[in-house]
Specification:
Blueprint (H helix, E strand, L loop, with lengths): L4 H10 L8 H14 L2 E6 L3 E8 L9 E7 L18 E3 L5 E3 L6 H16 L7 E8 L7 H7 L2 H4 L5 E11 L3 E2 L3 E4 L1 E10 L3 E2 L9 H19 L7 E9 L5 E2 L2 E10 L2 H21 L7 E8 L2 E3 L1 H15 L4 E2 L11 H7 L3 E9 L1 H10 L2 H4 L15 H17 L1
Helix pairs in contact: 1-3, 2-3, 3-12, 6-7, 8-12
The structure holds zinc ion (2 copies).
One zinc ion binds next to loops.
């Protein structure tokens, strides 16, 4: 009896859950693993699930150990795809507000593909040897799920990886794989900055330190970091995604809050950009006559997703043998970020993380011919993001099997 992967996917898609709230999803995964007879544990890193498939080699070592990782969480996005299996789910975000929820990043596809791959590998144990650890990770969208699993002992409680493999569905034509050695995705930090002024009456600005003007000057000055201080040949992003101050026109508030999203390709660039951002924030506060230093809090830190050169060469060659030369491309570095690489960094194992296409190839070709890909092909996090079911599901399964078998024989 096999898993009906299309039914599994559409069920997960209808029932997305926010980060660290993936309890129903974890239940669906655990049930499928039980049906497959695969040993597993729930509640790792709050809502994560880990499965182990052991197949001792003739020497009985159980090596190599291959980790296959899929993330599980949805996003606070109202689905507008109009699909028969579209989500109408609501959830409660960390601030307590009710929000729509959608699998707008395709993590439902990742879970489906990993369960499909486990079924295939469990059914072909005579053909390979080693150990597979399947990691169903919560809260990727918080950049916190892999750290939570590591804090919960995932690297000690389960066989440690010889290689970490993972994949993300992406708006490339279905059938295409994007993978590159080296930096595949940027590093990222999220900062919350509180600028402290001194509040007072709107008619008496001279008796206050106005944090609104301080914030405005800070936001503008931050824009000069990328345009004036970073080598034009390098990649960096400084985005102020949120700015809040004040409640009423005739009150000068006591503080202003900024939220920043920063991106860079490596740790060196990270150090340089962070130092410049901090310098600008502190200097603008000083220029405003602030009596207290600004408070700068790091909400999350994501390392760059760096694909190991040798391991990536092996996986790329395996994909080319399976799908043909033209089916595997180098998509360049993405300025999105991922927390998958903590598993590889903390264990010292090589990482290979690739993207696989989920867009109807005809639609993609048409948009390409008309020069409207950016408008007509919805990306991850869009309310219209909707991978085609086939062959995206089958390819997702096959990718994991092909890549894992490269190590397992
Ligand atoms: Zn995402
Ligand atoms: Zn994602």
């Amino acid at each position: 009896m096999g898993i009906d992967l299309e039914a599994l996917y559409t069920d997960l898609h209808r029932h997305p859950e926010l980060s660290f709230q993936e309890t129903r999803t974890a239940g669906v995964i655990a049930r499928a693993l039980t049906e497959l007879g695969i040993e597993h544990e729930e509640g790792i890193g709050r809502t994560g699930v880990v499965a182990i498939l052991r197949n001792p080699s003739p020497e009985g070592t159980g090596n190599p150990v291959v980790w296959l990782r899929a993330d599980m969480d949805g996003l606070p996005v109202e689905e507008l795809t109009g699909l028969p299996y579209a989500s109408t789910a609501r959830g409660t975000d960390p601030s307590g507000g009710e929000v729509p929820v959608m699998h707008a990043c395709g993590h439902d596809m990742h879970v489906t593909a990993l369960l499909g791959a486990l079924e295939r590998l469990a059914g072909t144990t005579a053909e390979w040897s080693g150990t597979i650890v399947a990691v169903f990770q919560p809260a990727e969208e918080f950049g916190a799920g892999s750290r939570a699993m590591i804090a919960d002992g995932v690297l000690e409680r389960f066989p440690a990886p010889d290689v970490v493999l993972g994949q993300h569905v992406t708006p490339l034509p279905a059938g295409l794989i994007g993978v590159r050695p080296g930096t595949q995705m940027s590093a990222s930090d999220g900062l919350t900055v509180t600028l402290h002024g001194r509040g007072g009456h709107g008619s008496r600005p001279h008796s206050t330190v106005d944090p609104v003007v301080m914030a405005a000057a800070t936001v503008m000055r931050l824009q000069t970091i990328v345009s004036r201080e970073i080598d034009p040949r390098d990649v960096a992003v400084v985005t102020v995604g949120s700015i809040h101050a004040g409640l009423k026109n005739n009150i000068i508030p006591a503080e202003a809050t900024l939220q920043l999203s920063l991106r860079y390709p490596d740790d060196d660039a990270r150090d340089r950009v962070l130092q410049k951002v901090e310098r600008v924030i502190r200097a603008e506060a000083a220029a405003s006559g602030a009596e207290r230093e600004p408070t700068i809090v790091t909400d999350h830190t994501l390392p760059p997703t760096i694909n190991d050169e040798a391991a990536t060469a092996r996986v790329t060659a395996a994909f080319r043998r399976a799908y043909g030369e033209a089916a595997v491309i180098d998509p360049g570095m993405f300025t999105g970020s991922e927390d998958v690489s903590w598993f590889a960094r903390d264990s010292g194992a090589p990482l290979v993380f690739w993207f696989w296409g989920g867009v109807d190839p005809e639609l993609y070709a048409r948009a390409g011919a008309e020069g409207t890909i950016d408008r007509d092909v919805p990306t991850n996090h869009s309310p219209y993001f909707a991978p085609v079911l086939h062959p995206t599901i089958e390819r997702g399964v096959e990718n994991l099997v092909v890549a894992a078998r490269e190590w397992l024989g």
